[in-house]
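Need a sequence for this fold. Nothing fancy.
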C-alpha cells in the first residue's frame, strides 16, 4: 500500500456539476458548498457562473485512494482535499444551440475538470439520460448523482440502481438532495473516481460504419468521442477547426450514406435510453404524486380561479410582511441598531475624545444612514422567505403557465413572466435571466418591462412611508404600488409591442416541476441568496452614500462647515431641482435630493432622508415624515419611487442585454417620464377629493 505524498494529500480537485434544469442541481450545489461560493458571469456572456469550495472535503478523517485501488487513511487537523465545485448552466443536451450549452461543452473541453458530477432526476430518467450519454463521451471521469428517488417511488416506480449502473457503464450514487442524504457518500465516491482517473465506459454504439468513422476522426483530429460524433452531426463550431483533409472525406461519405445523420444519432441515443429504462425501472404501485398534482392543479391552474388566487396569495404575503409581524421585527432591529448601538458608539467616541466633526460623521452619517435601511431588513427577509417557498414548491412555474394566454394578448410569450417575477426580488438577475428567452423581440420587450416590477430595494422606502402615513393600511398601500407597477407594465407592453418592437409571438413551452413541500434548509438558503445582495449593499454602496450625503449636507461649496443644511452643497442642488416636483406634491429639496441618491441604490432614498432630516433613528424619521408629507403627497412620492429609473447596476445590465444605446436611453427617459406623469396625476386628481 502506497502512502500519498504531502502534495497529493493537499491536491485540488475540480468537479464540474452538470444536469438538466429542475433536476435539483442548484440545491446540490448549495448543499456541497454551503455559503462558501462566489457568483459572477461566464466570460463574454451574462449567464451566471457559480463556483465554490466543497464543505465535505473538510473532515478530520477522509479516506484517499491511490492509483492501485488501495485505500489509505490519513488523520490531520487540516483538510486533506480541496474540492472546487463549478456549477455549469442547466441544459438538456450538448448541442451548441444556446449560450448555456456552449459554455458547458467548452468548459469541459478546455478547462478539463477532474470529474463531471452529473445530477439526474429519477422522475424524468429518460430525458435526463440523454445529456448523460453525451457527457459520458467527453473523455472525463464521471459520476451520476441519481436524485429524487423518493419522489419516483411516490409516483409508483422503482429503479434498480445496480442494473442501471451496469447498463450505463457509469458509477451511480442515489441521493436525496432536498434532505441532504447521500451527499457525503457521493463526494467520497467522486474523490475515488477522480483520483483513479477512471473513465466511464461509452454505452452506445452507432453501427459499424459510424463507429469506424468516429475512430478515424478521433485519430485525425485528436478529439474525444463526443466531438467526433458532433463533427459527424455537422456541428458548425467544430467544422471550422478541422485540420485534416481526410476528415472532410469521412464526413462527406457519412453524409451520402445517411443524409439525416443528426436524427439518426439522436434515435440511436433514445433507443439505448429506452432499453436501459425498460431494464432498470419497474412499477411498484399507484402514482400518488401524479394524483396529488392533478388535484392541486385543478385549483391552482384553474382557468377562472388561477389568477384571482395568485393575486390573493400575493396580497396575503404583503399583509404579513408589512403588517404586525413585519413591523414588530423592524421596530426590534431599529431599537437595537439605531438606539442602543448608536448610543453605545457615541458614548465610546466621546470617552476617547473624538471631535464633533468625526463623531457627527460616524453617528449622524454612517450609523443613521445605514441604520435607516437595516431596520427594514426583517421585512425584506420575510418577503423573500415567502417567494422562496412558492418557488421551491413548484407554484411559481405554474404562474408562468397560467399567464401565457393573457401574455399572448399583450404580444408576449408566457416565458417572459418568469424574469418579470424575478424582478420583484432584484432587477439585475431578472434582466440577466432574459437570456433564456429564444426570441430576440421577446427579450427586448421583456427587458423594457422589468423596471416596472418593484424590486426589493424599494421596500425600505415603502416601509418607512407606510409606517409613518398609513400605519393601519401598510399592507394594502404596498400591494397597491406593486399592482400599479404591473398594470403600467401591461399598458406599456401593449404600446411597445404595437409601436416599438413589432413581431410574431413565439410558441410557449414550459416544464412544470412536480409540487414539493420545500425543506426549511432549502427555503432559508434560497431566501438568503436573494437577500444577501441587500446586506452587501448596506455595507458598501449605502455606507459610501451615507458618508457622501453627510459631507455634502454639512459642507458649503467653499468647503466650510455650515449651520443650516440649506446652504450646503446638497441643499443648493436640491433647491434648484425641487420645483420640478411641485406638481407632484413633494417639492421640498430633501425629497428631491433623496431621489437622486436613489439612482445609486433605491435603499439610499431612506438613508439620505434620515441624514437630511437630521433623524436620529427610524422613529425620528417617521415623525419628520408625518410633519412634512400628507398621505396624498406621500403616496405620490411612493408612486414616483416605484416607477422612475432603476439603480445604476440595473441600467448597466439593461444596456448590456439590450445591446442598444438608443433603446437604453429610451427606457431611462420613458421610466422617468411615466413616473413624473403618474405621480403628478395621483396628487392633482387626489387633491380634488381631499
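Here you go.
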Amino acid at each position: 500500500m502506497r502512502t500519498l505524498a504531502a502534495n497529493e494529500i493537499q491536491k485540488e480537485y475540480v468537479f464540474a456539476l452538470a444536469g438538466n434544469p429542475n433536476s435539483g442541481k442548484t440545491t446540490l450545489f448549495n448543499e456541497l458548498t454551503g455559503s462558501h461560493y462566489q457568483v459572477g458571469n461566464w466570460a463574454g456572456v451574462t449567464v451566471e457562473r457559480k463556483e465554490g469550495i466543497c464543505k465535505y472535503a473538510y473532515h478530520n478523517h477522509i479516506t484517499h485512494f491511490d492509483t492501485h485501488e488501495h485505500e489509505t487513511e490519513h488523520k490531520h487537523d487540516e483538510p486533506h482535499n480541496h474540492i472546487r465545485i463549478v456549477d455549469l448552466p442547466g441544459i438538456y443536451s450538448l448541442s451548441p444551440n444556446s449560450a448555456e450549452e456552449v459554455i458547458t461543452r467548452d468548459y469541459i473541453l478546455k478547462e478539463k475538470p477532474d470529474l463531471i458530477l452529473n445530477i439526474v432526476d429519477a422522475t424524468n430518467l429518460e430525458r435526463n439520460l440523454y445529456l448523460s450519454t453525451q457527457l459520458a463521451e467527453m473523455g472525463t471521469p464521471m459520476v451520476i448523482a441519481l436524485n429524487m428517488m423518493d419522489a419516483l417511488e411516490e409516483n409508483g416506480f422503482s429503479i434498480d440502481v445496480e442494473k442501471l449502473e451496469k447498463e450505463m457503464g457509469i458509477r451511480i450514487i442515489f441521493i436525496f438532495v432536498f434532505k441532504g442524504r447521500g451527499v457525503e457518500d457521493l463526494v467520497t465516491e467522486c474523490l475515488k473516481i477522480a483520483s483513479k482517473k477512471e473513465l466511464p465506459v461509452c454505452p452506445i454504439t452507432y453501427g459499424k460504419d459510424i463507429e469506424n468513422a468516429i475512430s478515424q476522426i478521433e485519430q485525425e483530429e485528436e478529439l474525444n468521442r463526443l466531438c467526433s460524433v458532433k463533427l459527424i452531426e455537422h456541428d458548425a463550431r467544430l467544422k471550422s477547426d478541422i485540420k485534416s483533409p481526410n476528415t472532410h472525406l469521412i464526413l462527406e461519405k457519412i453524409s451520402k450514406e445517411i443524409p439525416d445523420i443528426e436524427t439518426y444519432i439522436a434515435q440511436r441515443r433514445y433507443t439505448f435510453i429506452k432499453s436501459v429504462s425498460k431494464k432498470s425501472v419497474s412499477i411498484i404501485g399507484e402514482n400518488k404524486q401524479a394524483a396529488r398534482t392533478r388535484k392541486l392543479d385543478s385549483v391552482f391552474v384553474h382557468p377562472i380561479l388561477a389568477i384571482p388566487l395568485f393575486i390573493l396569495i400575493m396580497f396575503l404575503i404583503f399583509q404579513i410582511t408589512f403588517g404586525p409581524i413585519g413591523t414588530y421585527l423592524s421596530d426590534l432591529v431599529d431599537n437595537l441598531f439605531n438606539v442602543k448601538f448608536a448610543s453605545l458608539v457615541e458614548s465610546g467616541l466621546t470617552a476617547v475624545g473624538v471631535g464633533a466633526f468625526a463623531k457627527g460623521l460616524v453617528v449622524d452619517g454612517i450609523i443613521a444612514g445605514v441604520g435607516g435601511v437595516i431596520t427594514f431588513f426583517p421585512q425584506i427577509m420575510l418577503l423573500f422567505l415567502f417567494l422562496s417557498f412558492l418557488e421551491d414548491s413548484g407554484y411559481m412555474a405554474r404562474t408562468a403557465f397560467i399567464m401565457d394566454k393573457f401574455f399572448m394578448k399583450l404580444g408576449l410569450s408566457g416565458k417572459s413572466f418568469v424574469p418579470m417575477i424575478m424582478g420583484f426580488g432584484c432587477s439585475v438577475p431578472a434582466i440577466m435571466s432574459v437570456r433564456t428567452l429564444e426570441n430576440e423581440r421577446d427579450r427586448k420587450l421583456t427587458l423594457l418591462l422589468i423596471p416596472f416590477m418593484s424590486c426589493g430595494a424599494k421596500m425600505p422606502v415603502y416601509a418607512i412611508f407606510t409606517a409613518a402615513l398609513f400605519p393601519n393600511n401598510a399592507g394594502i398601500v404596498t400591494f397597491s404600488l406593486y399592482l400599479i407597477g404591473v398594470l403600467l407594465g401591461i399598458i406599456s407592453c401593449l404600446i411597445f409591442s404595437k409601436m416599438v418592437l413589432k413581431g410574431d409571438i413565439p410558441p410557449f413551452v414550459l416544464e412544470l416541476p412536480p409540487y414539493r413541500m420545500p425543506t426549511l434548509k432549502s427555503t432559508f438558503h434560497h431566501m438568503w441568496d436573494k437577500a444577501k445582495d441587500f446586506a452587501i449593499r448596506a455595507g458598501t454602496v449605502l455606507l459610501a452614500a451615507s458618508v457622501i450625503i453627510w459631507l455634502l449636507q454639512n459642507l458649503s461649496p467653499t468647503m466650510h462647515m455650515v449651520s443650516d443644511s440649506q446652504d450646503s452643497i446638497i441643499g443648493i442642488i436640491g433647491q434648484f431641482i425641487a420645483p420640478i416636483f411641485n406638481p407632484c406634491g413633494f417639492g421640498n429639496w430633501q425629497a428631491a435630493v433623496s431621489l437622486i441618491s436613489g439612482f445609486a441604490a433605491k435603499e439610499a432614498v431612506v438613508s439620505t432622508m434620515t441624514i437630511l432630516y437630521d433623524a436620529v433613528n427610524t422613529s425620528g424619521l417617521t415623525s419628520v415624515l408625518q410633519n412634512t408629507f400628507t398621505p396624498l403627497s406621500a403616496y405620490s412620492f411612493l408612486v414616483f419611487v416605484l416607477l422612475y429609473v432603476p439603480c445604476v447596476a440595473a441600467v448597466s445590465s439593461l444596456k448590456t442585454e439590450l445591446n442598444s444605446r438608443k433603446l437604453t436611453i429610451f427606457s431611462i427617459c420613458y421610466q422617468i417620464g411615466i413616473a413624473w406623469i403618474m405621480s403628478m396625476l395621483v396628487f392633482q386628481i387626489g387633491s380634488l377629493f381631499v
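For context: The mean pLDDT is 79.
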